[in-house]
Amino acid sequence: MRRQSSLSLSPLLRVLAAVLLVSTLTSALVVPQIADQQQQQQVFGSVTPSSSWTFAAEESLDPTGRVFPMMKNDLILRAAREFRKVREEHEFFEIVRTPELATKVTLQPIDRYDGLLDAAIIFSDILVVPQALGLVVEMLPGKGPSFPNPLTSPKDMRRLKRHVDVHKELQFVFDAITMTRHALEGRVPLIGFTGAPWTQMAYMVEGGGSKTFSKAKTWIFQHPKESHTLLQRITDVSVDYLVAQVHAGAQLLQIFESWAGELGPIEFKQFSLPYLIQIAHRVKAELVPDRAVPMIVFAKGAWFALEELSEPGSGFDVVSLDWSHTPQGAKAISKGRVALQGNLDPTVLLGGEGAIVEATERMVRGFFSGDGSRRGGYIANLGHGVLPEVSVDAMEVFLKTVHRVGREVAAEAGEDE
Questions:
Q1: Which region is the signal sequence (predicted)?
Q2: What is the DSSP letter of 208?
């Protein structure tokens, strides 16, 4: 009989989650911990979990019982021939906007890594929100996201739609979520997501990716009032978008602040953190009482923000980490108030099997060593996205190593298998 922990991250359920991010692509895997059958039904709705999923959920109730490996769906697929075949026939945003294709692509890594991945996120992109606001976004081969007409000055905000009906503009995402929930048949849960306001603003002003983000940062220093106006408009759309994803079938939500590290601690507290917290609180408030779901945040590069994001008042249940944290340091700061996820340097996957195994084992054991190792929960993952040159076999070594070390950690802790 497995021992069940009395620790909890929220009144309804505990969550283990994964967050990985490269550029604007957003996809990850997550395992919720269900306290009882009634709560399980609230999370899974009409889709009955398989016996294997029920076993995993029960086992995960003790944070030392298993370490859950998570990988990023669309980034795995970039290296997989199944996805390359789809991309040869369809443009990126065509896949995003076609529910049948988005469902197909979302399921591919679940099937390829059968038994090694614990959840899925709908294949989509964070930049559908700027598209919904009225901006044109293209995905250019070899370059990434591009805005032909970015916001060059605050006056350009007049080009944005003042009122966005997310069901009109983004219904394809909701249809894809519902279709994928049925196609998964309860094998794993499904997660929804959006990009955080500062990250969205940075793309909208820069016109794409940037090494310095000087244009976006110039905005916040020269036009702080207008910057807050833009950030609030993005926030309002993001709240409606996330709430609608849950109604469509998403069982957890995550927010990607991929350019958080471009801000200093003071600017982060002014132009990022308030909007992250606002989204978490507003989404949960609108979904209360019976549809509220756990929320995950990944503020890449904002190592200085872990304390604020770990506080109960942040509204988040899981904080994902990049590799700028040590396991011991992150645990000391978070104090078990949230689950932690991460944080292997993704370039380790280019180092060969020996390097992958050594670094992965060190990471997992690091998060479970020392005082308070049983507090909060932990999810093994990379600290950022999978690099394009990483092989599918290398990622499989990582996943299998996490499973093996997780079993060893459980055995060493005296847990029953």
A1: 1-28
A2: B
Q: How far separated are the first and last CA of the chain, in Å rounded?
A: 8
Contact between 260 and 272 (Cβ < 8 Å): yes
**Quick check: 195 and 127 in contact, CB under 8 A?**
yes
Q: Is the peptide bond before 343 cis (omega within 30 degrees of 0)?
A: yes
Backbone angles phi and psi of 36, in degrees to 5: -155, 175
Backbone angles phi, psi at 301, to 5 degrees: 85, -10
Place of tokens 């190593």: 401
What angle separates helix 327-334 from helix 353-367, to the nearest 10 degrees? 30
Answer for the pair 201, 220: CB distance below 8 angstroms, yes or no.
Answer: no
Structure pTM? 0.82
Mean pLDDT of 34-59: 28
Q: Is 253 helix (H, G, I), strand (E, B) or coil?
A: strand
**Does residue 4 lie in a domain region?**
no
CATH number, domain containing residue 260: 3.20.20.210
* pLDDT value at 212 more than 60: yes
In a domain, residue 42? The reply is: yes
pLDDT for the residue 19: 26
Please report where in the chains the tokens 């059968």 appear, as a residue: 114
CB atoms within 10 A of CB 210: 16
Q: Please give the Cα distance from 201 to 219 (Å, whole number).
A: 10
Q: Report the residue count for the chain.
A: 417
Domain that holds residue 126: 13-412
Confidence of residue 413 (pLDDT cuts 50, 70, 90): confident
Within a domain: residue 43? yes
Alpha helix stretches (DSSP H) within 272-391: 273-287, 306-310, 327-334, 353-367
Cis peptide before 289 (omega within 30 of 0): yes
> Could you tell me how far CA 263 lies from the centroid of its own chain?
20
pLDDT in tens, 148-169: 999 999 999 999 999 999 999 9
Q: What is the pLDDT of residues 118-147, one digit of tens each?
A: 878 899 999 999 999 999 999 998 889 999
Predicted local distance difference test score (pLDDT) of residue 2: 33
Number of folded domains that form the chain: 1
The CA distances from residue 414 to 61, 67, 374, in Å, are 15, 15, 13
Strand partners, 33: 14
Answer whether residue 393 is part of any domain: yes
